[in-house]
Amino acid sequence: MIHVDRNEKIYIIFSVSLITVFFIALAVSSFVYGIQVPSPYQQVDPRTIATPGPDNPFGEPGLRELAPGKYEAYIMSQVWAFIPREITVPKGSTVTFYVTSKDVQHGFRINETNINMQIVPGEVSKLTITFDEAKEYDVICHEYCGVGHHAMAGKIIVVEP
Amino acid sequence: MTYTREKKLTGWYIGIGMAALFIGGFFGPLQKLEYVGINAYTALSKIGIATYYQGLTTHAVLNALVWTTFFIVGFFTFTITHSLKKELTHPIINVISLVTMVIGLVMAAIPILMNLATVLYTFYPPMKANPFFYIGLVLVVVGSWIGGWGFYLTYWRWRKENPRQKTPFIALASLITMVMWQIATLGIATELLVLIIPWSFGLVEGTDPQLARTFFWFTGHPLVYFWLLPAYVSWYGMLPKQAGGKLFSEQLARLVFWLFLALSIPVGLHHQYLDPGVPAGW
User: Fold this and answer.
1) pTM: predicted TM-score of the whole model, two decimal places
2) Is the peptide bond before A84 cis (omega within 30 degrees of 0)?
């Protein structure tokens, strides 16, 4: 059996308790505060995803109002832009973002919010958020996607209703 | 014992690694200059570095992959043989390792300098580089495996000659790190050989970016353990002696390395929390 000194025991107990606390904090934050991460939602064919058609919302990406204050936003990422580049919603709206790519990998992050997704061609990344503050949010691509990567950005404008 | 061959091999590995570090490090300040509006790439395009991202790729591949792998294989050539007090039993294997790694390095460097592989060191498909960039990376990795096999054979012989003796700490820790590396790099090797290389040659039409990311991160996180553990070998195995003392608890130090080996296998997935193809349960 390994001989463990008293000091070492204290450190081991401390670090195991720390990990336990972190684990509980993680569980609490995801269930109580509803922290969400993208999950498998839909797989698509990146070769035809930009082609307009009755069954393809990415053919004409943009914002659609489902009910008062409830929206869905289909966003196409491509080198080096988000389409549409800008969307405007009233304060208090709940927006579900569906984002995919027709070429390489991109990132989709709305600054100052919890929306942060990897955009992988062939997959649709989906997250929902409620905008409670009237202001402009910057959207940035955080995955290197070629020489124009740093210029790939967009905006969400939240206005007073 | 003179360790002539081991010294030479270690010298070559670490020398090439250091050269990579200095050349790669040169691009670090250029990135900062770019942020403040001074563009050095117009001048550098004469020697083949035309853009920020090409410089960044060179920087990343040289510092994160070449310097580390060359240094570590060289360092272990030293630590394992000195710790076992035994010269390499099959030095030719370690020479083949070094030559394979150098061929790989040159093969990957050419497309990078020609701006045909500006894909950073994560090289996520479907962004595509010249096939020789990928083959070069595979050769660097396989070369490091061959070096590991040379270590295992030496250890095997030592074990036969000293059946009852406990493996010295430094040798054990270095060997565990090498085993960890060989398990971890199965991810990147599969990604490159099965998915990316056939596709970059145009033999298959498409690839699976989500699967490729999963293979990449299977290697990508243990990769940092591979960089870290040689320092641990030094801290646990060498520093106490250099400071004139002894290692406080050698058995726990051994346990640390075994834990790293086990925990390195599933850990990569935490880089994929935001991936659309990975269930939230992870």
Assistant:
1) 0.91
2) yes
Q: What Cα–Cα distance (Å) separates residue A40 from each residue in A115, B79, B124, B277, B279?
A: 16, 46, 19, 5, 6
**Confidence tier at B145 by pLDDT (50, 70, 90):** very high
Instruction: Name the residue among A37, A104, A149 with its Cβ closest to that of B274.
Output: A37
What is the ipTM metric for this complex?
0.88
For B159-181, give the DSSP string: HHHSTTSPPPHHHHHHHHHHHHH
- Please say whether the beta carbons of B76 and B14 come within 8 A: no
Beta strands in B4-105 (DSSP E): none
Give me the residues paired with residue A154 across strands: A139
Question: Sign of the C-alpha dihedral, residues B272, B276, B280, B282?
Answer: negative
**A105/B255 touch (CB, cutoff 8 Å), yes or no:** no
- Which pair of structure tokens corresponds to residue B5? 């061959």
A87 in reach of chain B (CB within 8 A): no
**Cβ-Cβ contacts under 8 Å for A62 (sequence gap 6 or more):** A73, A74, A84, A87
pLDDT at A51 exceeding the cut of 70: yes
Q: Is A39 on the interface with B (CB under 8 A)?
A: yes
Other residues' Cβ atoms within 10 Å of the Cβ of residue A13: 10
- Is the preceding omega at residue B126 within 30 degrees of 0, hence cis? yes
Compute the nearest-CA separation of B57 from chain A (Å).
11
Report which DSSP code applies to A114. Answer: S
Structure tokens at A46: 């990146």
A105: which 2 tokens? 């990998």
Contact, A137 vs A120, CB < 8 A? no
Contact in structure between A93 and A86 (CB atoms under 8 Å): no
Segment B96-123 shows an average pLDDT of 94
CA B147 vs CA B35, B98, B122, B189: distances in Å? 41, 8, 24, 16
Which alpha helices (DSSP H) does A4-106 contain, by range? 6-32
B258 vs B149: CA distance, rounded Å: 19
β-strand pairing of A123-130 with A42-43:
antiparallel
Question: Is residue B263 less than 8 Å (CB to CB) from chain A?
Answer: no
